[in-house]
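Notes continue from the previous slide.

Worked example: a multi-chain complex. Inputs as given:
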Amino acid sequence: MKTLDRILAIAMNTVREAIRNRVLYTLLFFALALIGTGVLVSTLSYVESERILQDVGFAAIRVFAVAIAIFVGIGLVHREVDRRTIFTILSKPISRSEFLLGKYLGLLLTLWLQIVVMGLGFVGVSWLAGAPVGLVHLAALGLIGAEIAVVVAIALLFSAFTSPMLASLFTAALWLIGHLSRDLRNLGAQSQLDGVKRATELLYRTLPDLGAFDLTMHATRAVPIAISDVAFPLLYAAGYATLLLLAATWIFERRDFR
Amino acid sequence: MSDRNTVVCVEGLVKDYHSGFGLRAKRVLRGVSFTVREGEIFGFVGPNGAGKTTTLKVLMGLIRADAGRATVLGHDVRETEYRNQVGFLPEAPYFYDYLTGREFLHFYARVCGVSRSSRSRRVDTLLEWVGLAHAAKERLRTYSKGMLQRIGIAQALVHDPKVVFLDEPMSGLDPIGRKEIRDLIVRLQSEGKTVFMNTHILSDVEMLCHRVAIIVQGAVRYEGDPHAVLANDERDAEIVLDGVSPAFGESLEMRFEGGLRGVGDRIEVLLPHKQVNDVLGDALAAGAHVVSVTPRRASLEDLFLTTVEQGARR
């Protein structure tokens, strides 16, 4: 019980720090502006203007959620070490893993709040443009939230042992690769060489498969989805994020705060 | 090494800092050992780079020692739960400046497991205690350096710990700020808490500390009660004489060359403590008046400098 309370104390303080950060609002403003400009972009096409509108909306939510995770999230962890606030925290009866988990949950909660705000903007713009919004759209937004859970864990892992600049670069790179890992495996499968096939398969299994969290096609083209299309990615996100957090904790536990 | 009254016990701490992909190692602690007893104000003194802060970080679990052992209240410093009996103020602390003073203390109280029912009362008491009740609703970014030190001490006390570790608590403060912190430290000790203080401001140590350890180049070179040492170390005395005849003045000049100053028939003699009676007898016999006799005790600064010099020669 005490452990949970300590983790929640760190998480709520992280949320408070994030929502008092101006960078967050700047990014959020641009995200909402981009979702809004989907209306203009959709008018450029005579066909499927509603689909274009929602494609732009989903892309904006995904990209800005990742940007906030990287620019705000990594800074939040690094600042604790750089400004030495971590000295007073870790001198209290709180373990390093509790601290890291609290930080993770706080960041995730902040980002989920941003996704809700951007999602409301998306629904509002869709409603104004007469584009349909159904359960598939909500599922697609939910999976963006799950993808962000993995991205924040990646960011936390890198910020546990490297500088904010490198952590940002590594996280952004892994996010991009994560969206291409399925293509990588498919490409390898066509190879004549067994070694290449096995290597690409191994990479696919090791790297995050972020394509699993993308239901944009289903939502904008009204393709029906099965429960497993949502349940499997949610389980995958929980498992992958847990592994990353365990690795981050392992590194963090061994780190000297000089 | 330790007994029932020992609160902090450090034995043979060794720490290397690695750089250049771990290939280069610099030994910053070379077998640091000392003990802190219950209820005392203990000064951990040393020049910059001697290993004071590194030792304190080992005690706070922020750095892992490569060898040796450190316990606080009988617990290994790598444990977590016992820290609800320990408070810590780091050097030149930076706190969450987006929080108000009250929010800040509430946050730490929650992290320390102070119950929800007693949290507000404890926070209000501490804000009064450190004289910041008037600034409780202001964000920390508006606080002066002295106010930050005081709120820092409050966060170290939020869970009513038995031992308080302070790293350079007077550093960068003006004389008024230093006095405020000194008064707080004395008050802590009078309430039965053990205070461990890292500092290089010797006048504060001389004024506050019951015992000190002097660390030089990563090893403790002196540990004990500096006042006892200094009280027994009446090395010199200064005698001021008036109405000194030229002949007696010349004889003094021959005996204490370099230790003599004077204008007209008034002379000040700096001489070894053991020769005071002889010189006084001679002076009275020569018709001089004794204005004053002042024993010149060594200061903590002398003890510190001597220890540092000896440590540097080893």
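Summary box: Chain B has a mean pLDDT of 86. The first strand of chain B starts at residue 6 and ends at 19.
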